[in-house]
Amino acid sequence: MNPISQRLLSQQLICPQFSSPYDVVEWMGAMQAQEYRMMRWAVGMRTRKPSAKAFEQDYNAGRMVRGHLFRTTWQLVAGEDWRWMLELCRVNALRGMTGWMHSNGVSIPQAEQEAIQQIFSDYLSQNRIALKADFAKAVQEKGIAMDEQRLSYHIRLAEYSGLLCSGDLFPMKPSYALVEDKLPRQNPIPRDEALALLARKYIRSHGPATLEDFVWWTGLNISDCKSGMDAIQSELIEERWKGLRFFRHQDSRTRGFRSGTVTLLPSYDEYLIGYKSRHIALHPDHTHRAHNSTGNFWPVILLDGQVVGNWSAPAGKLRTEVFHPEAGISQEVLQEEISKYQMFLNK
Fold first, then answer.
1. What fold does the segment set 191-249 form as a domain?
2. Residue 50: which residues within 8 A CB-CB, separation 6 or more?
C-alpha cells in the first residue's frame, strides 16, 4: 500500500475528477475553512479547471455553506448536508461552546438567546444577508449594549440552533443568512444512517485512513464513529501499513500518481488537518514549518505528497521557500503550479 499516492487521489489533489466546486465539497464531506480566502483555493485546486468565480457562484447559491460543525471549527459542507451534519455534532458543539464561554466568564441565559436571535431573524427577513457589523447595529438599535465577544457567541449559538448559516461571499468578511432562506428543506435523517453517510464520505475522500483518524476528524465519540464504519463495512478494503490498520473505499482509485508532482497546499487543508497523525506526509523534523503547537496551520509546498516548503501570497505576490534539503523540485513544475494559482484568482 502507498498511502501517499492513494490519499492524493482520494483528496482530488492529483487527477481531479470534478468540474464544479460544489462537487468537490460534497465529495470531501466537510472541508476545513478556517481561512476565509484560502478555503477558496482549497476547493478550487481540487477541480479540473480552478476558478474563483465558479467558487463564488456555488457559494452564493447555497450549494455549499461555511459554518462551525465538527470539532466546533469553521468548515465548508454541501448545502444539502448542513442540517443532518449539524444534528450529529450539535451536542458536542454546544458543550464546547459552553466551555469557552465559562472560561471567559460569560453566561448567556436562554431568554437572552431567544431575544437576540429574534433580532437576527427580523433583520435578515428584511435584508437577506448580514455582516457581523449589521447584527451589532441591529442589536444596538434595540437598546441592547453588547461587546463584540458576546455578539460572536450569539452568532455561533444561532448557528447551532439552526437559524443561521453563511450568506454571500465577500472579499474579506463572512456574511450570514437564514438557513430557511438559503438551504433546501429536507426530511430528517436517522442518526444511524447519518453516521454511515458521514463515514462513507470520509473514507472515500480521505482514505486510506484509520478509525482514529475518523474519530479525530469528526470530534464525535469512538462508539458513534465505529458504528458508522461498521455500517459500511462491506464497502471497505482493509490494509495494514507499518503496523497500523487502514481503510479505503472499494471505489477508491489506486492509479494516476506521477512522481515529481508539486502542490501549493493552502493553510488548514484537509490533506494535513484531516488526520489525527500527519507523519505520513509531514516529517517530524518539519512539523513546525506546517503548524504550531496552538493549532495554527500555514500554506505548504508538497513534492509527491510530502511537505517540503512553504508559500505565501502577500499583496498578491506569491513567494516560495523550499526548506527540505533533499527536495529536488523542478522549477518548471513549481512555476506551473504558481501560474495555476494565479489563473484561479483571475477566472
1. Arc Repressor Mutant, subunit A (1.10.10)
2. 41, 44, 340, 341, 343, 344, 347
Q: What is the mean pLDDT of the segment spanning 318-327?
A: 83
Query: Can you read off the three cell numbers belonging to residue 30?
Result: 466537510
- Report the pLDDT averaged over residues 199-208: 98
193-194-195 Cα angle (round to 5): 90
Q: Would you mind telling me the total number of residues written for the chain in this entry?
A: 347
CATH classification of 3-182 is 2.60.40.10, yes or no? no
**pLDDT (tens digit per residue) in 21-40:** 999 999 999 999 999 999 99
Roughly what angle, to the nearest 10 degrees, separates helices 211-218 and 222-231? 120
CA distance 179 to 240: 43
Question: What is the structure's pLDDT at 182?
Answer: 95
CA dist 193 and 229 (Å) reads: 11
**What is the grid cell recorded at 320?**
516560495
- First and final C-alpha spacing in the chain: 38
- φ/ψ of 267, rounded to 5, equals -65, 150
Q: Contact at 8 Å (CB) between 311 and 298? A: no
Angstrom CA distances, 81 to 57, 138, 185, 187, 269, stand at: 18, 30, 11, 11, 20
Over 70: is that where the pLDDT of 326 sits?
A: no
Q: In the 8-state DSSP scheme, what is residue 199?
A: H
Domain borders along the chain are 3-182, 191-249, 262-346
Distance (Å, rounded) from C-alpha 157 to C-alpha 199? 26
- Domain 3-182 shares a fold with domain 191-249: yes
Angle between helices 191-206 and 3-10 (to 10 degrees): 120
Which residues on neighbouring strands pair with residue 140, listed in sequence order?
none
204 vs 196: CA distance, rounded Å: 12
Distance between CA atoms of residues 321 and 281, nearest Å:
18
DSSP string covering 16-75: --BSSHHHHHHHHS-EE--STTHHHHHHHTTBSS--HHHHHHHHHTTSEEEEE-GGGSEE
3-state secondary structure of 301: strand
